[in-house]
Write a structure and sequence with these properties.
Family: Belongs to the GHMP kinase family. IspE subfamily.
Catalytic activity: 4-CDP-2-C-methyl-D-erythritol + ATP = 4-CDP-2-C-methyl-D-erythritol 2-phosphate + ADP + H(+)
Order of helices and strands: EEEHEHHHEEEHHHEHHEEHEE
Number of domains: 2
CATH class of the largest domain: Alpha Beta
Function: Catalyzes the phosphorylation of the position 2 hydroxy group of 4-diphosphocytidyl-2C-methyl-D-erythritol.
Distance between the termini: 33 Å
Number of strands: 12
CATH topology of the largest domain: Ribosomal Protein S5, domain 2
CATH architecture of the largest domain: 2-Layer Sandwich
Bound molecules: cytidine-5'-monophosphate
Number of helices: 10
GO molecular function: 4-(cytidine 5'-diphospho)-2-C-methyl-D-erythritol kinase activity; ATP binding
Strand content: 25-35%
Protein name: 4-diphosphocytidyl-2-C-methyl-D-erythritol kinase
């Protein structure tokens, strides 16, 4: 029986980054329904904020705000599931509660791990609110049960992900990369993109699940043009098959001066790498005029993983 917890006092605020996959190499689907991956994640400055406030024992709720269209606020909400899972894992589900609020800027169903970010934020915020003793990798291991990208949302920076994308190794980078994100007027379902990937027969052999040395070198030296030549996304053909209009967005962004454009994860967000901040500002103004682009955001990478803010 764990000792009774001290009642929490103040709300705890956490900021969690979105991610871009600089490389996404995907194998054939496994028996668990997941695809083995080798991916290079970069956290970017676009973020969600998660606040955990005290609530009566056994009560776990969430209020969504910001760009949260289509995200429910019931027990299936990933932040609520994360809070409950953390409480259960520590054997305190009948002693603690949390009133969560999530302010979303990461696009929903956008291929930038917005749902995983909210789960990661709730895990960190509740662990502090409830003053739990958490092992260094404990939150990540728990988070992986909620979504493959949760461990990276906690870690942040730039990291190589293997397994389902949940086994992480930090990667050395220098400098700062400037991204322009074209958000779509409609989301794409990640499972649907993986299904189309299977239908197209695109899965790699296990020995082909590898990230190119050129990519690692470009990150280490902070060389944006070299990075642009090395980025790669195996899911892009599947995402483009489901959303052919993204092809025009990619092409236009490159014509307008981006070093390169990539589909972010399973899409439909398109991420453009720019040579510097002023190129990013120019590009973002122009991209906003394209059809089917709901909004344009500038972001820098790498960004910190989930962290407490005042
Ligand atoms: O883990 P998460 O809930 O983010 O994954 C959403 C869906 O994406 C999974 O249910 C699965 O269909 C697909 N997926 C996959 N292989 C991965 C990660 C996700 O097939 N490595």
């Amino acid at each position: 029986m764990p000792p009774p917890l001290t009642p929490p006092s103040e709300p705890v605020r956490v900021r969690v980054p979105a991610k871009i996959n600089l490389a996404l190499m995907v194998g054939r689907v496994g028996e668990d329904g997941y695809h083995p991956l080798a991916t290079l994640f970069q956290a970017v400055s676009l973020h969600d904020d998660v606040v955990a406030a005290p609530a009566p024992a056994g009560e776990f709720s969430v209020t969504m705000s910001g760009e949260a269209e289509g995200v429910g606020d019931g027990p299936d909400n990933l932040a609520v599931r994360a809070a409950r899972l953390l409480a259960e894992d520590h054997g305190v589900a009948d002693q603690v509660g949390a009133a969560l609020s999530v302010r979303k800027s990461i696009p929903v169903a956008g291929g930038m791990a917005g749902g995983s970010a909210d789960a990661a934020g709730a895990l960190l915020a509740c662990s502090v609110l409830w003053d739990l003793d958490v092992e260094p990798d404990g939150l990540g291991a728990l988070g992986a049960r909620l979504g493959a990208d949760v461990p990276f949302a906690l870690l942040g920076g730039t990291a190589l992900g293997t397994g389902r994308g949940d086994v992480l190794a930090p990667v050395l980078t220098s400098g700062c990369f400037h991204w322009v994100l074209a958000l779509s007027d409609e989301g794409l379902s990640t499972p649907a993109v993986f299904r189309r990937f299977d239908e197209l027969g695109l899965g790699r052999e296990p020995e082909e699940l590898d990230v190119a040395d050129e990519l690692m070198n470009a990150l280490r030296t902070g060389d944006a043009p070299a990075l642009a030549r090395a980025v790669h996304n195996d899911l892009a053909p599947a995402a483009l098959d489901l959303r052919p209009d993204l092809e025009a967005t990619l092409r236009r962004g490159e014509e307008l001066g981006a070093l390169t454009g990539i589909v972010s994860g399973s899409g439909p967000t398109v991420a453009f790498l720019c040579v510097d901040e002023s190129a990013a500002i120019d590009l973002s103004t122009q991209l906003a005029r394209l059809p089917r682009v709901r909004a344009v955001r500038r972001a820098r990478g790498p960004a910190q993983g989930a962290r407490l803010i005042s």
